[in-house]
Amino acid sequence: MDRLDNDILHLLFDLLDTSDILVCSRVCKHLHRAILDNTRIQLSLVKRFHNVPKLNNNTNGLTAREEIQLIQGTHLNLHEFRPVISTFDLPDNQEVYMVWNDYIITQPLTTNRDELKATGKHTVCTLWKDDIPQGFRLPFYTDRKVLAIDPDQDLILVKELVKIDEDDHSPKDIESDFGSDLYTVSDHEISIGLEDDMNYEVEEYLHAYHLFNRSSDPVAYSPKTNITNHYLNGERGQQELSILQDGKMMLVENVIMRMYDWRTWEQIARFPPAYLGCWESRISWVITSNNLLVGVDLPEVRNARPISARGSVGHEIASLAIFNLDELNPPSHIVWTPDLLLEIPLSSKSLPYVIKKIDKVYKYSQSIENNHPPNDQPILHETTDPRFLSLTINVEIDRAERKILKIVLPVEELRNLMTIHPKQMVMCADVTYDGIWGDFSNPFFGIRRISFSKWSHLAHVSLINHDDQQQVQYGWNMISQKVEAMKMYGNLRLSISDYNPFNFIGTQVRYDRYGSMRSFIWEDLTEDQLAKDETRTEPSSCMPYHKSPIPLAMAGSPYYKIPGPGSINYDVTVKLNQKGKPGKLCFDGKRLVVQMIEDGSGKRTAWILDFTI
C-alpha cells in the first residue's frame, strides 16, 4: 500500500464518495498521510465537503492550495459572519436577478418604451462587472416572468410574445397595439397586460442565446422554437423556465411540465405523458442536484377531512412525488408513475403526532392542525441546484399559537430510498378513469405512499417560529431575512442554517494531524487578501451556534454513506442605518445581495456582503 504513487491515489480517490475517503484515512496510516500531503486530493475532498459545484471552475489559474484557501476562507467568514460590505446603487427600473463570480446580473422591471423606439431593442438583463455595465438587448418583446440564466453554461433562455392578427392569423408587432402599457409592476411582481386579456391569440417562442457576447448583438445557439399551446388558453404568464445540465431545460406551466433539449428544441419528456392529461394537484417543484424532479402533490380528495368548527376544510393528504430524470421512458405497457411517493405529515393524525414527538412542550395540546386555506399548503423551497429539500408546513396550535414545521432532507437520501422502496409498476390495462393520472386533481390515486415514519429518520425535522421572512438557499446553506427588522429599524437581521451532514462527524474532518483535512486558510495569504480582511464588518449582535440533535440511529458512526441529518444555526444582526422595504435575496455561496427600496426617496440599493478572502 505504501508503494502506491500519490498521483495514482488521487485518481482512485476521485472515484470514491467523500465518506469512503474519510474511512480510508482512518484505517491506513499511509493513506492518511497521502490524503493530508497531496493538495490535489485535499482540494477534491474540500470541494466535496463544502459542496462546490463542479461547473464553478472559474478560478482564474489558481493553484490547488489557493483554491483550498478560497473555499475554506469563504466558509469560515460565513460561519463567523465577517463580510466585507459594500453598496450598489441599482439603476432605475432594475433589480438584481442573480450574482455569479465577479458579476452582478440585473433585470428591468418594466419595458423602456423610449429605448425600444430609439434603438429597436429593449434590455432583457444587464451584466455588471467592476461597475461597468454590458446590456443584453433583444429586438422583440419578451415575457419577463419566463427567463432563465445559467452563466456556467453561458446560456440565457427567453420567451418571445407575438400577437396573431385576427384577420389573417399572421404575427403582428405588439408595440403598435399596446405601447408602454404592456408591462406594469407592483411590489416586484410583474404582471403582463397582454396575457391578462384573452380576447386575442398569441404565438410564443423560446430562444436560446449566449449570455456572454463580444458585441452588442447576442449570438443565438439555434433557431427559435414555437411553444404555443392553444389548449392552455389562460395559463400564459404562469410559466417557468429551469436550465438543467447536458443541454436540457424544463418549461413548466400550471398543469404540465415539459423537458426540452434547448440545442435542438426536441421535446424529451412531458409530465405527465401526453396521453395521460394534466397534473393539476402539483403546487410546487424543484429539480435536485442529482437529477431528480420533486413535486409537492396536494390532491383534492372529496370528504377527506370533516369541516371544522370554523367552517373551513383543510387538506388531509399531501405527498412528495419524485421522478428520476435519468430514466424517462418506461415500457409501452407500463404507466409512468413516480419513482417515489413520500407522505407529507399533513393529516389530522400524523401532524399532531410529529409535533408532539419533536417538542414535548406541546405534549398535552388539545388542537394541532395545519393552517386553514389558503395557508394550509406545504411549501417546497424552490431553488437551483439544491443539496437538500426544504419543506415547510404552517401549523396552528390550540387555535392561537402559530409555528412552522420544517423538514429538511438531503437529496442523496432520495436515491437511497429508491433502492429500499422499488418503483410501483402499474399496467396500462389496469388504469381506470379515476385511477393513475385519470383524475387530474388526484393523479396518484391507488399508488401506495411511503409513510412519513419510514423516512423521517433521514430528515432533520424542527419546529420554528412563524416570522415574516424571505429565504435563499445555496448548497447546504439557507439564509433567512427577517423582513420587519429592515422595515422598522433599518437592520439586516439574518438567520443562517448549515445542513451539511459532514458537520456531525467532526473527528474525521477536523483540521489537525488526526483529521483528514488540512487548514490552508492563513498560509501564504497575499497582501491584498490581508488588507481585505482588515475591512470586514462585525455584526452588532450574534447568537452563538446551536447544533440541533441528530437521531441516535445515525449518531457516532463514521461508516454511513451519508452522515446523520442535522443543522448548525445562528442569528446575526447588522446595522445598515437605513430603513426600507426588502427586495429579493441573492446568494451564490460567496456573496449575499440584499436589496432595499429606501423609505422616502424610493431609491433602490443593493447591499453586497462578500465572504471571500
From TrEMBL:
Pfam families, per the entry: F-box (PF00646)
Taxonomy, superkingdom: Eukaryota
Protein name: F-box domain-containing protein
Domain F-box as annotated: residue spans: 1-45
